[in-house]
Structure to design on (536 residues):
């Protein structure tokens, strides 16, 4: 710096102005996820099948679906209890096929992170691994590992500064954190006719796909479809019949607004079909529910430094972690592949028997959230022998990568990512392709991803003892900035109002806005400082 700042004609008037008043306290609410670790539970049970069902010769499909749980919160813990629904598709004697629904109860307990606070607690439970073994002609045992992500939310306000009396100067930065809200549509029914073409329905299962979740003023409009899968038998062969039923529901959610971002998690509680052998159609009924979660990024200033005007002061600071939401939505990705069944098996009459999706932790690249995983589709392929011939399973792995834009206005600062992300198969189509079995599937990804950012925030500001040499009256001091000085550090050093310092030296308002960076002192060799009389 090799020159003095040029003084502006109105410097005297500007210097005489009072410093800016203390901004009002911010009361913006934000959500803090105080606990989100997974809890694992094992459920095991042995079932005895009725005498009218065929004896078990070969298991073709085992699937497990976890129904939403009831919950109890109290006595320092959260308890969840619900049902695991199994679907067992197997072949018995003489090739006879059965598709049976079975169920087990589960119970999960997790300690509260803070029993003194009114925490909001949610559980998302899924069947991570299911093992089924025949233990007798009509006996079968199940062992299922459940993974429950139990989140505990605390609601709080942005931190404010407790200040001693006087005129404090505060340096703040805009902090971003999300506010989370959650609700459900409640149970609703989807019903309609499905064509059988003379096939005998053995069992039915359904998957809900959410196509859109659009927030409004106090509500979220959800559109989607039920993918109903009916396992049936026609002329001694297994067949899979599918039909999609659209639905539209509204979830009331006070506090949500059109600027929120939403993700949805849909469940089919039950799915049944009533039809007689030889009938051309049957009536399907499904009971469903959609859970909606919305995130809104809230911006508020957080004080990172402060001092009192006219007297030495001391500031106490604390580390605060804020979690802006980078991504909160549900979307679909299409996957495809093919594989040849074992030698001697035909892909022509392949029947979808189940599938699952594994999802890796997401990554941020540019302005997109990247997901990668593998969808696994299982099918039963009968031999050309026709009626009574055994069917063998074929497994097709479908790796995929998918990306979607970050939440509007969100940017990634390089902090650790946290949140919840999961995926499910919502639709599968099997087709013969020469000797191969071709599969086309849809994967629904539902995720809420936040970034952890830590800020050192001032929590309180108090007066410090006034040294004897500082009791002189107000005077003009010429200060020559040193390396590392900023306009803010100079004002703090002499306990003068930042606005008065900029005005006395003829600086414009933009200088105050960049007062905390070294460039704020570019263009001058010294500063005039009007030192106020200390407050005794």
């Amino acid at each position: 710096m090799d020159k003095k700042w040029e003084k502006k004609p109105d410097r005297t008037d500007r210097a005489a102005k009072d410093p800016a008043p203390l901004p009002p306290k911010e009361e913006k609410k934000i959500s803090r996820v105080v606990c989100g670790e997974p809890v694992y539970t094992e459920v095991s049970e042995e079932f005895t099948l009725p005498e009218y069902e065929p004896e078990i010769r070969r298991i073709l499909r085992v699937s497990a679906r976890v129904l939403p749980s009831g919950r109890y919160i109290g006595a320092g813990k959260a308890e969840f209890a619900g049902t695991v629904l199994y679907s067992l598709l197997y072949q018995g004697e003489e090739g006879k096929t059965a598709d049976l629904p079975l169920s087990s109860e589960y119970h999960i307990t997790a300690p509260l992170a803070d029993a003194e606070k009114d925490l909001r607690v949610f559980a998302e439970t899924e069947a991570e691994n299911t093992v089924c073994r025949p233990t007798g002609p009509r006996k079968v045992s199940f062992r299922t590992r459940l993974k429950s992500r139990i989140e505990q939310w605390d609601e709080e306000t942005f931190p404010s500064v407790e200040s001693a009396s006087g005129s404090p100067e505060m340096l703040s930065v805009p902090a971003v954190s999300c506010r989370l809200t959650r609700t459900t549509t409640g149970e609703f029914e989807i019903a309609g006719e499905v064509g059988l073409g003379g096939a005998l329905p053995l069992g039915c299962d359904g998957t809900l796909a959410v196509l859109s979740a659009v927030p409004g003023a106090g509500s979220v409009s959800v559109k989607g479809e039920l993918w109903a899968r009916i396992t049936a038998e026609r002329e001694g062969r297994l067949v899979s019949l599918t039909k999609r039923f659209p639905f539209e529901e509204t979830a009331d959610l006070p506090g949500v607004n059109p600027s929120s971002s939403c993700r949805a998690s849909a469940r089919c509680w039950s799915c049944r079909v009533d039809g007689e052998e030889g009938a051309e159609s049957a009536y399907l009924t499904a009971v469903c529910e959609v859970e909606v979660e919305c995130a809104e990024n809230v911006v508020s200033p957080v004080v990172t430094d402060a001092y009192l005007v006219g007297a030495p002061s001391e500031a106490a600071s604390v580390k605060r972690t804020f979690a802006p939401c980078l991504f909160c939505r549900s979307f679909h990705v299409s996957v495809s592949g093919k594989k040849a069944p074992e030698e001697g098996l035909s892909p022509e009459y392949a029947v979808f028997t189940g599938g699952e999706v594994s999802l890796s932790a997401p990554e941020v690249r540019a302005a997109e959230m990247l997901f990668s995983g593998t969808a696994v589709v299982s099918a039963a392929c009968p031999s050309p022998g026709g009626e009574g011939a055994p069917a063998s399973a074929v497994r097709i792995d479908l790796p995929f990568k998918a990306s979607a834009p970050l939440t509007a206005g969100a940017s990634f600062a390089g902090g650790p990512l946290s949140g919840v992300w999961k995926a499910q198969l919502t639709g599968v189509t099997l087709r013969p392709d020469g000797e191969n079995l071709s599969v086309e599937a849809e994967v629904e990804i539902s995720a809420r991803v936040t970034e952890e950012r830590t800020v050192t925030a001032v929590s309180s500001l108090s007066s410090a003892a006034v040294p004897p040499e500082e009791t002189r009256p107000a005077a003009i001091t010429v200060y020559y900035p040193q390396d590392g000085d900023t306009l803010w550090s100079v004002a703090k050093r002499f306990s003068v109002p930042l606005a008065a310092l900029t005005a006395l030296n003829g600086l414009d308002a933009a200088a105050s806005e960049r007062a905390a960076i070294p460039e704020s002192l570019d263009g001058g060799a010294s500063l005039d400082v009007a030192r106020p009389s200390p407050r005794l």
Notes: The helical segments are 11-16, 487-493, 498-504, 509-513. The longest strand covers residues 281-308. The radius of gyration is 33 Å.
